[in-house]
């Protein structure tokens, strides 16, 4: 039997696996032990994830169909057209489940005296407030489109929500219109409290209540409004105009995305059929698009920002990020890391150390050069301002900024322009490769020598996401590692040269080969009766080559433990193929984001932190860095925190062929790994 004949058995399709990851997010919204407002926010995360899935993954599969290809090799043995149909059915079921969960949460909110009311539940005491709010805040922001057969429908904005309005006129004719739900107005409007009762109305329902004010020039006898949303292909298409700068090309491509091909059309299942037919005809929606009947409200991603209403009892307790023992925000970071390496594990520990490091470099007269990679910046970025400050102070600052960081292009373009204007040397990646590595190297004159300091991370240098993403950052003055980091920056500047690295593992040239060599060493150790095992933590694994190599190790008897948050195309626990592989996924309060590779190495473990998931794009089409951990204390710390995650029996789900997302339960003492990890660092501070 050939490999292609067995693909259905060997791998889980990545799109289906991703949808099952999003089902785990939905489980958090359903979980009665999760605080109520947090459950609403998980519903928002679920919806936001789904939007991005359709913009990127569904759109990619649709492109394969439109090109007349089957795509079986790329899609794990499933034909592209069949996969689109499977996706649509899974999403319809998940959307239905999410609506039921939303109804349950809203009923539970009533028990807490929080009422989300509709337009037909507004009482007299609330009318004046709503009228005044509409006139002052909403009406000036409205875009209302009157439709008729002679006018071409304007391109509806990607992922914007619209109310499709149907008016039955006095002469029985129909008039259709669209109201764009304005993003500049808060989706959730808090009404005046009545005693201890809190009331919220969604902007959508406020608009429904005010339809007669919006359409008062029309002589209609009946009016109704139902929500629709269109999702467009989110891929960037670059033009070949040589006269344009790279910033201009990316900026133009981002603008073009707004009018990309539609890939999903979601509508209120209670919409009038004639309204639905009219809109689908006008928009050119066809049977290769995902057409999904939904509930009354779309863009439920907005629930990520559901107001707290002062009810801290209905949210997770905020944790105070801990300091790093031995590393002070009030003293020089350079002096500290000159003596030894330090590890930051955000958000358990404060990300402020990264900002402090760059601010110190910006002011230090002995610092001559700063080189850093940037993938996603915060909306208000202290990282960017520190780099600009350094350039103003005469430092040579080089920033390799990835303008094509999906859905963050516009923010990166804006900061790139600011940095360029202040004299920062910008590098826009490498032709054909995204720069996804997370690293910084600083050169400082010390006497007659130049000494390097720097940091390497598993996550983006982003103050906002550092509060909710778990990521490791290694601060080091190890000249061996930082010399390799400098070589990678040299590759950015002269990418026709392929450099060799003695310590770092770098994509796209060396990662697969280096990881295979590390796996082969574990296989050999087991064959010789020595200690051999592999422990991996990552966001996703979808490279069939990497999956096959782990299958090979499993068949040789190597015990493999995997913590995979998202896509997992590998099928663990199958006799004769993967019986020595166990895999779990943890979805909880924080987004699990680190990539960690641990190899047993006959009792002297080799430990790496990395920016790279085991996906084809990370290994072959991006600049990624995996960094060895040489400090024994830090190595122990990473192994300890991996073990805490592996012992999770509260929020861990078993990954298996059935894709059932079954919780991993056992009779041992309950371990909720994110809470236990924070406790681990508290204990370290106190010991």
Automatic annotation (TrEMBL):
Gene3D superfamilies: Endonuclease Chain A, Polyphosphate kinase middle domain, Polyphosphate kinase N-terminal domain
Enzyme class: transferase
GO MF annotation: an example: polyphosphate kinase activity
Residue ranges of domain Polyphosphate kinase C-terminal in the record: 332-497, 504-674
Record carries keyword Transferase: yes
Family matches, as InterPro entries: PP_kinase, PP_kinase_C_1, PP_kinase_middle, PP_kinase_middle_dom_sf, PPK_C_dom2, PPK_N_dom, PPK_N_dom_sf
Record domain Polyphosphate kinase N-terminal: where: 11-116
Described function: Catalyzes the reversible transfer of the terminal phosphate of ATP to form a long-chain polyphosphate (polyP).
Protein name, as recorded: Polyphosphate kinase
Classification of source organism: Bacteria, Pseudomonadati, Bacteroidota, Flavobacteriia, Flavobacteriales
């Amino acid at each position: 039997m050939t490999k292609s004949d067995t693909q259905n058995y060997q791998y889980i399709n990545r799109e289906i696996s991703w949808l099952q990851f999003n089902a785990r997010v939905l489980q958090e919204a359903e979980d009665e032990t999760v605080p109520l407002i947090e459950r609403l926010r998980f519903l928002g995360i679920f919806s936001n994830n789904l939007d991005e899935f359709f913009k990127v993954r569904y759109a990619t599969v649709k492109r394969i169909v439109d090109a007349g290809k089957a795509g079986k090799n790329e899609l794990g043995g499933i034909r592209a057209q069949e996969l689109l149909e499977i996706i649509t059915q899974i999403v319809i079921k998940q959307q239905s489940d999410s609506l039921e969960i939303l109804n349950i949460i809203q009923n539970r909110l009533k028990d807490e005296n929080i009422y989300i009311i509709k337009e037909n539940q507004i009482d007299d005491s609330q009318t004046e407030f709503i009228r005044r709010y509409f006139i002052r805040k909403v009406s000036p922001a409205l875009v209302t489109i009157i439709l008729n057969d002679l006018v071409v429908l304007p391109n509806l904005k990607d992922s914007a929500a619209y109310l499709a309005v149907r008016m039955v006129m006095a002469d029985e004719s129909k008039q259709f219109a669209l109201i764009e739900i304005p993003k500049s107005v808060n989706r959730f409007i808090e009404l005046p409290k009545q005693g201890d009762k809190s009331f919220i109305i969604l902007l959508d329902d406020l608009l429904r209540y005010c339809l007669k004010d919006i359409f008062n020039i029309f002589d209609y006898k009946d009016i109704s409004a139902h929500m629709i949303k269109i999702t467009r292909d989110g891929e960037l298409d670059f033009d070949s105009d040589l006269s344009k700068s790279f910033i201009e090309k990316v900026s133009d491509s981002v603008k073009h995305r707004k009018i990309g091909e539609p890939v999903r059309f979601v509508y209120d299942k209670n919409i009038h059929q004639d309204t639905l037919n009219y809109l689908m005809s006008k928009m050119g929606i066809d049977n290769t698009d995902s057409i999904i009947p939904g509930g009354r409200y779309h863009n439920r991603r907005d629930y990520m920002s559901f107001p707290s209403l002062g009810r801290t009892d209905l949210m997770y307790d905020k944790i105070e990020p801990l300091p790093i023992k031995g590393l002070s925000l009030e003293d020089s970071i350079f002096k500290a890391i000159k003596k030894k390496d330090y590890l930051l594990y955000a958000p358990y520990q404060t990300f402020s150390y990264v900002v402090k490091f760059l601010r110190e470099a910006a002011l230090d007269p002995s610092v001559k050069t700063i080189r850093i990679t940037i993938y996603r910046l915060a909306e208000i970025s202290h990282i960017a301002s520190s780099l600009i400050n350094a350039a103003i102070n005469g430092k040579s600052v080089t920033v390799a900024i990835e303008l094509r960081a999906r859905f963050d292009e516009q923010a990166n373009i804006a900061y790139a322009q600011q940095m360029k204007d202040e004299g920062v040397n910008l590098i826009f990646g490498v032709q054909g490769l995204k720069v996804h590595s997370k690293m910084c190297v600083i050169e400082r004159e010390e006497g007659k020598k130049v000494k390097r300091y720097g940091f390497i991370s598993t996550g983006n240098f982003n103050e906002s996401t550092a509060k909710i993403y778990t990521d490791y950052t290694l601060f080091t003055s190890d000249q061996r590692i930082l010399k390799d980091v400098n070589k990678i920056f040299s590759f950015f500047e002269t990418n026709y040269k392929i450099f060799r690295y003695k310590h770092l593992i770098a994509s796209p040239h060396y990662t697969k080969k280096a990881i295979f060599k590390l796996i082969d060493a574990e296989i050999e150790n087991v064959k010789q009766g020595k200690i051999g095992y592999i422990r991996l933590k990552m966001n996703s694994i979808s490279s069939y080559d990497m999956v096959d190599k782990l299958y090979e190790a499993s068949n040789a008897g190597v015990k493999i433990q995997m913590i995979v948050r998202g896509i997992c195309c590998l099928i663990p626990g199958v006799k004769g193929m993967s019986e020595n592989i166990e895999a779990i996924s943890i979805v909880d309060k924080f987004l699990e984001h680190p990539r960690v590779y641990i190899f047993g190495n006959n009792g002297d473990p080799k430990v790496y932190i990395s920016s790279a998931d085991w996906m084809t794009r990370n290994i072959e089409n991006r600049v990624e860095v995996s960094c060895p951990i040489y400090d024994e204390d830090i190595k122990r710390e990473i192994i300890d925190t991996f073990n805490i995650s592996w012992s999770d029996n509260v929020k861990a789900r078993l990954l298996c062929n059935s894709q059932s997302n079954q919780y991993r339960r056992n009779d041992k003492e309950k371990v909720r790994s994110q809470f236990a990890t924070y406790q681990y660092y508290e204990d370290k501070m106190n010991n």
